[in-house]
Structure to design on (185 residues):
């Protein structure tokens, strides 16, 4: 369900933003934080999996900023949501993970320009926390699912407890695909 802002315009939430094949039998949902080194590593693994498992997986990223240890994580997540309003979520998402140590407001504005965000209100919206509730919604939904730390990955709505490496995740995806085929047979 879209969230409405103070001007009654719907805000596009991250829960509806998927990369990969929309008809894929395997859904990956990662709860993460743009300042987390471990999330950055998993981000690179997921990108490789999207390339290698194209039609088998679809991917959704949900915000779970650990604000007690990462002071810029929440604003970075808001910046990604702001970019999503102009169809630039994935571009911004990738850029944020490319620069986890440069997530201050000025850097976020530079990244927005770089990915093609044209809104003149980008920085004022960040300052006013226009997208803060959207990020908080991801966080609360994660808490309801038992997420307590990042990165936390769900494969087809089940929390994955294995190693977040390309070989291990490839194996888990293949097992899910075989399981889906058996259910259809």
């Amino acid at each position: 369900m879209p969230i409405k802002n103070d001007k009654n315009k719907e805000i596009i939430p991250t829960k509806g933003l998927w990369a990969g094949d929309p008809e894929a039998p395997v859904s990956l949902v990662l709860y993460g934080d743009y300042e987390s080194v471990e999330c950055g590593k998993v981000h690179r693994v997921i990108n490789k999996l999207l390339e290698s498992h194209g039609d088998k997986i679809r991917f959704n990223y949900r915000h779970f900023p650990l604000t007690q240890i990462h002071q810029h994580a929440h604003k970075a997540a808001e910046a990604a949501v702001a970019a999503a309003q102009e169809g630039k979520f994935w571009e911004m998402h990738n850029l944020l993970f490319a620069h986890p140590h440069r997530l201050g407001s000025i850097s976020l504005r530079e990244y927005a320009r770089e990915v093609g965000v044209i809104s003149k209100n980008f920085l004022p919206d960040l300052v006013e926390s226009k997208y803060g509730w959207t990020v908080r919604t991801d966080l609360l939904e994660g808490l309801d699912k038992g997420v307590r730390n990042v990165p936390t990955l769900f494969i087809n709505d089940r929390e994955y407890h294995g190693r977040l490496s390309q070989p291990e995740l490839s194996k888990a995806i293949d097992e899910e695909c075989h399981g889906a085929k058996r259910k259809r047979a």
Notes: The longest strand covers residues 26-32. Residues 53 and 170 are 8 Å apart (CA to CA). The chain has seven helices and seven strands.
